[in-house]
Structures are given as structure tokens and as C-alpha cells.
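Example record

Each entry pairs one chain with its bound ligand, zinc ion.
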Amino acid sequence: MPDSPASPLDLLQRVFGYPAFRGAQAEIAARVAGGGDALVLMPTGGGKSLCYQIPALLRPGTGIVVSPLIALMHDQVAALRELGIAAAYLNSSLSAEAARQVEQDFLTGRLKLLYVAPERLLTPRFLDLLGRARPALFAIDEAHCVSQWGHDFRPEYLGLNVLHERFPEVPRIALTATADALTRREIAERLDLTAARVFAASFDRPNIRYTVLEKVDVRRQLLAFLRDGHAGEAGIVYCGTRRRVEETADWLAAEGFSALPYHAGLDADTRRRHQDRFLREDGIVMVATIAFGMGIDKPDVRFVAHLDLPRSLEGYYQETGRAGRDGLPAEAWMVWGLQDVAAQRRFIEESEAEDAHKRIAHAKLDALLGLVETAACRRQALLDYFGEKSGPCGNCDNCLAPPTLWDGTEAARKLLSTVYRTGQRFGAGQVIDVLLGKRTDKVAQWGHDQLSVFGIGGELDDKRWRSVVRQLAVRGWLTVDHDAYGALKLTEAARPVLKGEERVMLREVVARRPKRTRQAAAVADLPAAEGRLFEALRDWRRRQAEEKGVPAYVILHDATLKTIAARRPASLEQLADIAGIGARKLESYGEALVALVAAVPEEA
Ligand code: ADP
Ligand code: ZN
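C-alpha cells for the complex follow.
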């Protein structure tokens, strides 16, 4: 960097090629550049990296970034180098020789940013190095890893307060996308950041569209979702079990998708290969358990689908947050069924945890079911859970197509009575057969065709009765007893419903999400000439990425390519105006891009 004093905005525009800061980025950068500590809570895709990268460029010395994720470090460093910034990383993937070179560059002050794994940072060797070199700041990424309650706990993070003790004059910035109050407090206390200024951004991700559907025919539903607007796009399909991951990946591959499995049962090599392909190639569908995703920095994940219920709203928000980091339209899509709820309850009950822990886990599941069940805005419900008030969003299934409600008071009564009359020993299938008056072998064998409730439910079909069961279960009037083959049982709370004292409004089953509206990002939706140019640009980018051995988005983001396709810059000057084109990218790729635009005619 030149010695002339640069301003944060100056750097943002010149080096990163972005016209303006987002949210509190400018304030945070100024605070840290000025030597102050900061605790930054920002959703995934909010733009946390710039909050430490820019101060690191402004301060003398090297910004030290603590990150738990090796793959992420690699890609971030590649992206910074693409911008012409001297950056490197130190982790176990480097040879001793390469690591020594990085240390040397750090000591001589040649690096502006150095990414370090926490266990490496805490070694006496590195602490000694820090003492002899010049750290500009410490950025602690994924700071929630310090929380023992969270699922990403990393014991090494607990040692990071040594930084403050040893180097009290070096500013620190801790960053996380985990929102809940308990985790925030833990981060501040454990990292000795109680005096830091807290910057809490809104956790809303307005570009993500939420859809939650009842399971009717999962494969057909998923296929419709993928084909209707996500063809050729990258996304993640989360499944609850390894087996479902394998089956779903195979099936999607047979249906013509570039689908890959990912779960903890695959060997490390396969996992790495699949993750690499997801990051580097366009349009890969990763079918995975939640073992996949943390630290996946890919900005153009266009959808996250859940085929099984996540464990909690926190989990759901984190997983869906991996979609649309680039700010372009993205979708979070989930189907759920009664078996999911039963499976989760069983999982909690059978865990080794203490009762207090189990109670929390049940409560978290209930909160998630609240989201699934609501007929109001999904985003409002989500944000409310994280302590943020908002209005209806206009970009979730319930806002776009308000669910049709029907008076299910009578149906609920009939269902609950049938459960009761059959002795609370049977699953939904038998109960519904009785309601529908089906004289199956099992119905006859138990004498259920002799009951007063036999055949009282002819007004609804099997599919709708199943929906009633699900809805009563999420509201806590019915439980599914997993020790007794999924037997339905009444709860105490069901009493007024059974007696008809409580009015029950139910939502109509919708198997399909509302039609995509025009904001859709799919390439197929672009005007023909623009689509052709965008495809040509993607091809070009793929070749560049392959040559350099970096993910495509490290070269240029989709958003930038789309703007180029729309504006057709005819000169380097026009190109420089486009967000994502900084000085170095202009120098490296400017000529090629302008030539490419000229080569793909506007009229076919
Ligand atoms: P986070 O770490 O919070 O998930 P990132 O730092 O990876 O988010 O940023 C998400 C995306 O937004 C990146 O592609 C980044 O280049 C882009 N971005 C960040 N800040 C800005 C900005 N001020 N203007 C335009 N794009 C930005
Ligand atoms: Zn909404």
C-alpha cells in the first residue's frame, strides 16, 4: 500500500471495487482502524470480512485473522491476492518450508493480512513471532466457536484471550453470525471483550425467500422446486440422516442433476473432493447432513432445501443463511412431516443429556414448529425469535400466497375422538382408516369397525386427514409415541378441543410453493442476449478459475457478471464503474472482458 493516507471509502472503491459501505461497515472499520475493539454480530453475507480487511490495510503492520476453517482461509487468501493484497495463511496444510516462508514475510512486514488457525496461533512459536513482528489487529472470525453451548465449540478458542493479555495495545475485532443473547454474552466474557463496542446488525436476509411445505410426495416436491427456477444453479439439500443423503444424491444424479453426497461417514478425501467441486464448479447440488456447510464461503448458493426438520430455529437460520450471500435472490425451502417431529423427539429423549438439557431441546423444537405452523409471515416469526421486530416481508410463501384457512373444529374433534376410542395405541394410518370407514384387515382384527367413530370422517380424504394430524401434533394436542410404533396420543391440552370448546383454524395443504415472481435470478429469466453474454462470461470465468486453481467467484462474482451482461461496457472506463471491479481486477481482466462483450453481439 502507498504511504499516502487513504480513507476507508477510498480503499473500498479502489481496491475492492465497491461503491459504498453496507450497514455499519464504515463505522466498524473506522473504530478498529482507530485502535478500538469491536464485537460484530452480522448475518451471513452481511459483509463481515471487510470490517477487518480494511482496517488491516489502514494500520501499519499485519492484520491477524483467526479462523477455524482451513478451506475458507485458502479461498479468502486467494480472493485477497486477486485484489492485489499481500495475504497468506498458516495452517496444517502448509509444508514446513512454506510455513517458514510465510513467517519470514510476516516478520519483515511484507504481509497485510495473515490467516491463522487457532491451534497454530496459540503455539509458543507463533506467540513469540507475534512479539517480534507487528500485528495491526486481531480479527477473531466465527467467534461463537468460543461458546460451549453452541454446536461449533472449539476448545482452542478459549485460549484466545491470551492475545489481549500479551498485546493489549493491538485492537481486536470478534465477528459472528450467531445471534442469540446467551452466545453474545459468552463471546464478550470469554474473549475479554466486555469493553468492546458492539455492532449488532439486523439479522434479516431480505433476498432469501422462505417456503415451508407439508410433505406430500417429497421427491416430486423437490423435483418441482429444483426444475422450476433452479436448473443449473448451485444449492444445498439438507437431509437428516446419512442414508437419506446417499439415496437422495443418487436419485438426483439419475434425474440429471450434478448432485454429490456429503456426510461425516464419508472418508476425508471424498468429503474434501466433493466440497472442492461444490466451491469450484458451477451448478453443483450438494446433498448433505449438517456436517456440511460451516465456513462455506460460496456467495452464489441459490437455494438451501431441507428434506427433514432441522433441530432448532438457530440451526435452520444458520443453514438457510448459506444461500444468497451475494445479495441476489435466493430460496430457503423446507418440507416437513410428522415422522420428522417424532424422530426429533425420540432423538432428544434418547440422548444422554440431563433433563434440563432435554427440556431446552424440546423447547427449541417447539419454537421451530411454531415457524412451520404459522399462517403469518415466516420472516417476521424468524426475526421475532432473534429479538427483532418487523412487519410482513412480502417475500415468503405466506406473504406471497396467504394460506387458506378452514374451520377444522369438527375435524379436530373427530380425529381426537378416534384416537381416544381406538385406545391411543395406533398410528395415523390406522386412525385415518377408521375415520374413513375402511374395513381393512387390521381394522377388522381390532374390531374398530364396531366403534361409533367408524366412518365418521368421510368429508376429508386421506391426504387432508394426514394434514390435520400434523397440524394438531405441532400445536401440541397430539403426540406421537415413538416407543409404540408411532402411536398417536392425546395430551392434556387437547381436552377443550375434544369437547369442542376451542375453535380450531387449520391451513389448507399446499404441496407446491407459490410461483416464482419476476425478481427471479435464474439465467433462464434473463433477456436472450443478456443470457447469452452471461453464459459466455461464465465460461470465460471458469477457464480463468481453472488456470489459477481458485473457485470461480474468486475471479468475479455472479452479480458482477450479470451487471456486465446487462450494461455491456464498451471501454475500460465503463467497466470500472461496475461494482466488483477494483483497480487490480480492471488491470487483470479489463481488456478480456471488454473484448468478450464486443464479441457477443446484442442481436442474435
Ligand atoms: P460474511 O462474512 O458476513 O458472511 P462476506 O464478508 O463474505 O460476508 O461478504 C458477503 C459478500 O458481500 C461478499 O461477496 C462480499 O464481497 C460482498 N460485500 C461485502 N461488503 C460489500 C459492499 N460494501 N458492497 C458490495 N458488496 C459487498
Ligand atoms: Zn413474509
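The longest helix spans residues 528-548.
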